[in-house]
Amino acid sequence: MAHLSFTGHDLDRDDHTRADPERLAAMRARGDARLLVLDGLLPQLDEHGLVISDLSGIGDDTELVYLGLRGGAPLFVQVPPEGDMRQAVTLRETMLALMRLDPAELAMFGGARSVADWHARHRFCARCGGHTQIAKGGWQRNCTSCEGQHFPRVDPVAIMLVENEGDLLMGRGKGWPDRAYSALAGFIEPGESIEEGVVREVLEEVGVKVRDVSYIASQPWPFPSQLMIGCHGFTDNRELTIDYTEIEDARWFTRAEVAEAMENGRHAESFIPPLPTAIASYMLTWWLEQD
Amino acid sequence: MAHLSFTGHDLDRDDHTRADPERLAAMRARGDARLLVLDGLLPQLDEHGLVISDLSGIGDDTELVYLGLRGGAPLFVQVPPEGDMRQAVTLRETMLALMRLDPAELAMFGGARSVADWHARHRFCARCGGHTQIAKGGWQRNCTSCEGQHFPRVDPVAIMLVENEGDLLMGRGKGWPDRAYSALAGFIEPGESIEEGVVREVLEEVGVKVRDVSYIASQPWPFPSQLMIGCHGFTDNRELTIDYTEIEDARWFTRAEVAEAMENGRHAESFIPPLPTAIASYMLTWWLEQD
Q1: Which of A68, A128, A182, B245 has the fewest Cβ atoms within 10 Å of its own Cβ atom?
Q2: What does the record give as EC number (chains A, B) (predicted)?
Q3: Is B49 a domain residue?
Q4: Domain interval for residue B76
């Protein structure tokens, strides 16, 4: 079975330390404390993988997130000067760098990127506009002016394989590489379940009604901090009414076309399949393995 | 089968109108436009259910969220003066009022409460501290000082039934009613899948390792805006090491005890089961129906 990318980190998140300022300070002062070095929010790699340094040169008031214990040693990441809301599809260099990481490193980078980026974009209190400061080892920010407490965001996204008579519905977003198709997806909104999100998104984007939604798998997607929730469903309606303000195209693919694309990757004839780091790639592999 | 509370709203969310200011203004001006009337963030009920009024008396610059079309008529909710971060367990009156709603109304109230509360707590830009204003019919807020765009939060929470030799592990939070027990739960963090969140939370709270996590069902929980993701897993370890900073107690319950509690509700002898509006109630019903 394929691997779910951005899962399988080898950190002990050691949440008991987060809430204890003394214990946290002691972790930071330890000789074996380490820093995951990012270039802004990009991964920085050497011949061994992600660059990890000691904490020398890090001032006491530098905002660090405590990621947890790795091989028993405390690991931190620094809050960068600027956040980043660009779409992952525009981060070609990042995506290529990610392919060089082993699965546990990729997962560690993903979580670190999400939380560091969140800090950089939440230096002010949404409630009162005051300054916020890092708290709980980087798993919270508190307002310095009001009682506001703020927590890292994780945005659940429903992503779905929709099937009709053995064919699969996929679409392509604006600005995607030529001939690239993937599973339809969208943010789950307040007031709906995962399954209701699947049905609404597909109806909005291509005008068909989905039934019998089931869950496949989940993985994080750190651009900036999505929880991708992979689902499968059926539709009895093949006729698409595409909302071109949301997507660039959508169409049906045969099982043979999906198999060919997954076999040949970016050299495929039928369509360019999603990157292996995307949960859509895992879902297509899963689907091809079903009866 | 039990119903998943807060699901099954009967709104067409009509997202195409959100992004179109003219269409949105026309919706607001329609004679059949209606307002879901909240008392702050509490539901307001009359003999028919939720109180719905016309828009007379609502000024043009009042912040309204466009919830969508209900029976063809546009429905709005007003952003209240104050948000609310109290825990649902402290909102006894709200919980009792909710029990009087039919399922579609409950779901409509839940979504409206979450998004209205989010607006009230996000009048400032987390990026720069500037004022934000409502956009896209209430499904976005934009900063008036920088390029910041902000979207309603939905916080995914993993909630899990953990099983060992046919018994079920449940816990109770601080401040819960006497003898009340429910499934363990916790927020999914950046950098982990649903399944990894389940394993981490159980390990943190009671010190046992969970394997073979599977998905059961999901529902929203609008206090303030969680997506509850119900899972099941097994553990080979019955010995609990409880983190009393996080929970007040946890213990194993036999199938007979769970059945008795679900049968007798708050008059049960074994323990007080979760409210029917909680996904934990659905999950326990589901579990009792398994072989």
Answers
A1: B245
A2: 3.6.1.22
A3: yes
A4: 15-150
